[in-house]
Specification:
Domain Endonuclease/exonuclease/phosphatase: 51-295
Number of strands: 13
Strand content: 25-35%
InterPro entries: CCR4/nocturin_mRNA_transcr (IPR050410), Endo/exonu/phosph_ase_sf (IPR036691), Endo/exonuclease/phosphatase (IPR005135)
GO molecular function, one term: 3'-5'-RNA exonuclease activity
Order of helices and strands: EHEHEEEEEHEHEHEEEE
Region (Disordered): 221-257
Oligomer: single chain
Pfam families: Exo_endo_phos (PF03372)
Structural class: alpha+beta
Length: 304
């Protein structure tokens, strides 16, 4: 089944979500401290499509203005028709435009500086399918419960999440989205370990974890290994592209192209539940001369 053939949104509902602050714990301990004998919650029913898309903030607007890219971004999202959507580099104006264009989704995403006036990494979900139970955020730092910059990053990095119940199956999901700093590998590895720990906690609570992100790192990196369970510490999420059958994977492997026609490296991911059956994984190709962003959107379709 081609992702483009998925049913389009058929209801226009209001936007709303409840704010719940992230925990105030300080990251500590080692991977051996985790209780990693978790089980994924039981699921079933229809497939879920999750999409990750870095839409790029204002740094390139002079040459590649948002006014020109915006309809291409919305067309790409509409083409994929995701059930779950994670967006990176959503400055307030871009966030507002996306909420207006996709008003049949519920959205959540405070700014990384706190409040609504800074760059966000919002999550969105189909309001005709999912019931939201809670929303929250944490920062990729030593003090994740408050706005903060961690591990030599140049600016604060935030992760936003929502706990959702699938109305068709009753499955409880923890859907998290983030943008990891490019500063250095230690920054990325520590951020990945915090993300993995949070996903483990949710899985132990009976929730099925789904993570979308710009990792700013390739699959060969230590941070990728930490997130996907390639180390001694288990993870409840896996790389959706690696989990999919080869014949069901389409589009280029690399996702960052810097406004060139050939992608340079893979840094964008949809991490699917470790026990899920990944039916499709798609990267939309570069559109020569009609760039959406400097990143390509990626999407995974999976069943429990």
């Amino acid at each position: 089944m081609d992702l483009c053939s998925l049913s389009r949104r058929d209801a226009l509902l209001g936007i709303g979500s409840s704010l719940a602050a992230g925990g105030g714990d300080v990251l500590g301990g080692t991977a051996d401290d985790d209780l990693c004998d978790f089980e994924q919650s039981d699921g079933g029913g229809g497939p879920v499509t999750a999409c990750s898309f870095n839409v790029l903030h204002e740094t390139s607007d002079e040459e590649y203005p948002w006014e020109s890219r915006r309809p291409r971004v919305t067309e790409a999202i509409d083409r994929i028709a995701p059930d779950l959507l994670g967006v990176q580099e959503a400055r307030p104006g871009r966030f507002a435009d996306l909420k207006e264009a996709f008003s049949d989704y519920e959205w959540y995403g405070p700014g990384r500086e706190g409040g609504d006036e800074s760059e966000a990494v919002p999550v969105a979900w189909r309001s005709d399918r999912f019931e939201v139970r809670e929303t929250g955020e944490f920062w990729l730092s030593e003090t994740p419960g408050k706005p903060s910059t961690g591990w030599d990053a140049r600016n604060p990095r935030i992760a936003t999440w929502a706990t959702l119940t699938d109305g068709g199956t009753g499955t409880d999901l923890w859907f998290c989205n983030t943008h990891v700093s490019w500063a250095n590998e230690e920054t990325r590895r520590n951020s990945a370990e915090l993300l993995r720990r949070r996903a483990v906690e949710r899985a132990e609570n009976g929730e099925t974890a789904v993570v979308t992100l710009d990792l700013n790192a390739a699959p060969e990196s230590p941070s990728y290994e930490v997130l996907t369970g390639g180390t001694d510490a288990a993870s409840p999420v896996a790389d959706g592209r690696s989990e999919a059958e080869e014949e069901s994977v389409s589009g280029p492997e690399k996702t960052y192209h810097a406004f060139n026609d050939r992608p340079k490296e893979r840094v964008d991911y949809v991490l699917t539940p470790e026990a899920a059956d990944v039916r499709e994984y798609q990267t939309l190709d570069v559109r020569e001369g009609e760039y959406r962003s400097d990143h390509l959107p990626v999407a995974a379709t999976f069943e429990f």
